[in-house]
Structure formats: C-alpha cells, structure tokens
Known about the structure:
Blueprint: E1 15-19, H1 24-35, E2 39-44, H2 47-52, H3 57-61, E3 66-69, H4 75-85, E4 89-92, H5 99-104, H6 106-126, E5 134-140, H7 163-182, E6 185-191, E7 194-195, H8 204-216, E8 223-225, E9 231-232, E10 235-236, H9 237-248, E11 256-258, E12 264-265, H10 266-276, E13 281-284, E14 291-294, E15 300-304, H11 322-328, H12 336-352, H13 354-362
Parallel strand pairs: 1-2, 1-4, 2-3, 4-5, 5-6, 6-11, 7-10, 8-15
Antiparallel strand pairs: 9-12, 13-14, 14-15
Helix pairs in contact: 1-9, 4-6, 6-7, 8-10, 8-12, 10-12
Guanosine-5'-diphosphate-rhamnose (GDR) binds near residues 97 and 310.
Amino acid sequence: MAFVEHSNAPVEAPVALITGITGQDGGYLAELLLGKGYIVHGLARAPARLDRARFSRFGELRGRLHLHVCDLRDGDTLENVLRVVRPNEIYNLAAQTHVQTSLEDPAYTTDVNAAGTVRLLEILVKLGHERHSRFFQACSSEIFGDARGVPQNEKTPLHPLNPYAASKRAAFEAAVHFRNATGVFASNGILFNHESPYRSPSFVTRKISLAVAASQRGEKTPLSLGNLDARRDWGHAGDYVRAMWLMLQREKPDDFVLATGETHSVREFVELAFGVIGSRIIWEGSGVRERGVDAASGQVLVEIDPAFFRAADAGMTLGDASKARAELGWRPEVGFENLVREMVMADIERMAAPSEAEARVASD
Ligand code: NDP
Ligand code: GDR
C-alpha cells in the first residue's frame, strides 16, 4: 500500500501523536509509523508508568519516540502538548480498557474514555488545528453489547452493557459530532478483540498463554477461568493498527468495523494453547465443577472460578468488516491458530530467558 500524503501535510516526516503509547496497540502503532518515516510523539500518563512498560513493545522503541507525560483527564497539559507538537495525525488509544474495572469505577472510566476524547477534540478546534490534524478514535465492539444480531457491522444498533461500553459509545458519538459540526477529520475504528504477546495479563488470552508457559516449566497450579463458553472475534494487534493508519489516509473521515469474521470460545483458545506444548485437554464435570484435565497425565490444568464470571457480559462477538475490506483494502493476516501459537511461544521464551530480555531492553 503506497503512502498517501494529506493535501495539507508536510511532504516529509509527518508527525503523529499516539495517546496510550505504553499499551499493546500503542507499541505496534509506534513501530508501524516509525517504519513509515513518521516523527512519533506519545503520551504516557506518569513517569513511573514508563518504567513499568519497559517489557512492552513500546519499551523496545522508547529511544526513538518523543514522550510527554500527560493524563487524559488533564486538559491544560493536553492543550500544551497539542500546541507544541501540532500533529498531522492523532491516534487516541489511551483508555481505561478493562470491562470489570469499569464496573468498579464507572466515573473514572467515563472521565478518561469519554470526557478524555471530548477534551482532545475540543482542544483541536480551540487551537484551530481542525484542518491540520486528523483524529483516530479507538472504539470497541463492546458498544454492540449482547450479540442480538451477528455478524455486527457499522449499521448494528448500539446496546452497551457496562460502563466501559457506555464510555466508548460516548467517545464514538463525540467523534461523529465533531466531524459533522466542526469539520474535524475524525474517524472511529470499531475494534473487535485483538491480542498479541504484548497483551496485558489481565485479559483472558494472555492469562492463558502465561499459564501454558508456566505449565511447561513444571507449574502445577491449575489455571482458573470464568466463562469458558464466551466467544470472541479475536485478531492480532499488528493487523488492527495497520487499519487505524489506513483510516487516516482516506480522503474523507468515516467509521469502520475491524474484525476477523471468525468467533472462537475461551475453551477453544485454552485447548489450542495447551496443544502448543503437546497437552491434550479432556473436559470433566459441568458448571463451576468443570475441569480441564491433561489426557496423558490426568493432571488438572484448568478449573473454574466463579469470581471470573461477569454479571453482564457479551456472550459472543462476531464482526463483519466487509466495509473495511472494500474501502480500505484491509484484511487481517494473522489467523486464530497462529495468534495462539505466537502468544504461547513468546511467553515460553520470556520465561526461559527473563534476564536476557531485560538486558536487551536496558541496552536500548
Ligand atoms: P491497553 O490497555 O494495552 O493500553 C491502554 C493505554 O491507555 C495504556 O498506554 C495506558 O497507560 C493508557 N491510559 C490508561 N489510562 C490513562 C489515562 N488516564 N490517561 C492517559 N493514558 C491512559 O489497551 P490496548 O492497547 O489493547 O487498546 C488500545 C485502545 O483500543 C483502547 O482505547 C481500547 O479501549 C481500544 N480497544 C482495544 C481492543 C483490544 O482488543 N485490544 C478492542 C477494542 C477497543 P499505562 O501504560 O500507564 O497503563
Ligand atoms: P473483553 O476481554 O472483556 O472482551 O475486553 P477479556 O479478555 O477480559 O474477556 C474476554 C472474554 O473472556 C471471558 N473470560 C475471562 N476474562 C478474563 N479477563 N479473565 C478470565 O479469567 C476469564 N474467563 C473467561 C470474559 O468473560 C469475556 O467474555 C477486551 C478489551 O480489550 C476491551 O478494552 C475491548 O474493548 C474489548 O476486548 C473488545
């Protein structure tokens, strides 16, 4: 795909600002944009978080990025950063991203995810940057709520089930409003789940890949999970950040569902992941007494913990990304089996040589 310059962007070295650069997608996107010759600025919410992120993909790129410490709730600092950086492209990836946390702290989630997006858009207009800066908003398939109609696309009615989903709906609508009312080039990506070896361990896929790697090293404690039959449309983060970039290279802003068009259960993820280390799981019992047992040794590998069930959870997501395919020429390249394998192998490698990984990051 050829690089398409914006009509009003500098011919060389476009400038991008990524909020949430220390997160999973922030690292992949920074890497993509650096590879395309961008000058990349990133917002990180506190200096201490930068150190915590040293094993993220972001950590490996850190020396090549311009970093600004700023919380999305701090409008004054946001304004200063935008005034100084004058980005051609803004990717708003920062968010409180955990559904369960949003149930525990809905006000904070709304402040960061919904009001934070409005703050950024408002500052863009206040600074008169609306013709200079294009804006990508990371929205979520969570806005669809329970799968009343699948596959879900840009026309599916919104039915958020939790404060995280409601905050992402508000951010989505703010981007549409600013686009219509002020002419800001603002586009929403309605992102279905996407994972990678840089996923936070609090999400189920990474929790599983870490447990499989630990099991391979002799760990005997079973992996505790909630609803094994929840189904997700799981893709690879690297594919999704490519679509974010493509969305900002279009002539006109628009909203796109980004999804693989396949749905798999947590149970399937577990089976494939343990399969990477040669374990075949047999399921015994039912309900909260269900257990996943190694077919060869009889060892219990998986157990159910009701604490990991959610009061309101989208039981299944399945996206229809045909608009992105037709208009962006985007299609995901990494399939489900390869995603699972990559995550498990990465955790096996990290556990085998943690000091080597540390040395590599320290020398950057
Ligand atoms: P992560 O949870 O990995 O990263 C979230 C980022 O937001 C981190 O850099 C985090 O900083 C930052 N952040 C959190 N709170 C604040 C705050 N108050 N001020 C400034 N920064 C903050 O998420 P992903 O990379 O996976 O997701 C990127 C975006 O895409 C998010 O908006 C998410 O909601 C959305 N999305 C992701 C999907 C997925 O499956 N990955 C699917 C649908 C939507 P710190 O490192 O300090 O914690
Ligand atoms: P999700 O991701 O809520 O879809 O949000 P998560 O990996 O947390 O859950 C996926 C499904 O797995 C079920 N599940 C468990 N989940 C966790 N975290 N831990 C468990 O032990 C467990 N057992 C079963 C969940 O109930 C759920 O059905 C992600 C985030 O990236 C959001 O920011 C993003 O918007 C959505 O994806 C699309």
